[in-house]
Amino acid sequence: MIEPDFLLLNDTGLYCAAGDFYIDPQQPVATAVISHAHGDHAARGNTNVYCTAATARIMELRYKRNAAADFFIQPFNSSFNIRGVKITFIPAGHILGSAQVLLEYRNVRYLYTGDYKLQTDNTCEPIEYAEADVLITETTFADPGVQHPDPIAEIQKLNGSMHNVLLGAYSLGKAQRLINLITEYCPSRKVLAHFNILPINNIYEKFGFKPGNYEPYNRKLMKQPGMGYVYIVPPMTFDSYFRAKNVMRAFASGWKQLQRHNDFELLISDHVDWNDILQMISMVKPKEIWTIHGDGQHLKKYFQDQMPIKLLNKC
Predict the structure, then answer these.
(1) pLDDT < 50 regions, the chain
(2) Is the pTM of this model over 0.90?
(3) In the chain, where are the structural domains located?
(4) Domain covering 7-145+271-311 assigned CATH 3.60.15.10 in the classification
(5) What angle do CA 288, 290, 292 make, to 5 degrees?
(6) Do residues 88 and 100 touch, judged by C-beta distance below 8 A?
(7) pLDDT per residue over 131-168, tens digit each?
(8) Domain 151-259 belongs to what architecture?
(9) What is the spatial distance between Cα 48 and Cα 69, in angstroms, rounded to a whole number?
């Protein structure tokens, strides 16, 4: 029987009382199961952290000694146990090392997606599917009006001219994916990477996911107009270059608001859109859906007569 309070969301994070641990806690806890290394899912300062090897390595890079007191590295598709709760990490396809968390307790399967995507991405493990009684899905873009465009068509917008481009992107996951896409589909372009992106690229390469062709940022190169350079920078750097001359500005994201005031849109997202979520549901075949990390109201309305929908976070 599905336990409605098996996972509860509080100010610290998503808590599993049966195993006395948190999934992706927002504050330091004694025992944390972490789906991936983005800062809104992987807090620093936890005592015991269960995650994949890549997630641990990225956390160590970013948080140094505060990454965790102890890491318990778990491979994909190999189960482990925390106080009677059986846990399995399944590739989520979001970034390197990202995992869905399958929890099995009293013959019921609960699948927490973390952040995930179905689109092809050569810089991380592709998503895999598992059936579950309860699907706990992120709902970042869970709106019928949101359908992500083809990322290949989006990146090929860079082929429209040879203007140098200042390209905003998150340093972890998005930057590596962009380098890969540009290398494959914009061969006349040359990628320059911000210094904050370089050590993350090194981790990707060590785990066998080489992003593609790039070189460290060189100020002199970007001052040469019309040479086809694409300088990938994190958001804060992108915002500080609002007066940059002789370059076109773009920000790679699924968020429409991040496309404003730029020279062109680059709608490349690492999250599922509405149709992807529906496909995920068809693959998981849940009896119930619980929503988190976004607004689940559209799913609640869509499935109102078909299955129970519980909004863990009321938006």
Answers:
(1) 315
(2) yes
(3) 7-145+271-311, 151-259
(4) yes
(5) 165
(6) no
(7) 999 999 999 999 999 999 999 999 999 998 889 999 99
(8) 3-Layer(aba) Sandwich (3.40)
(9) 6
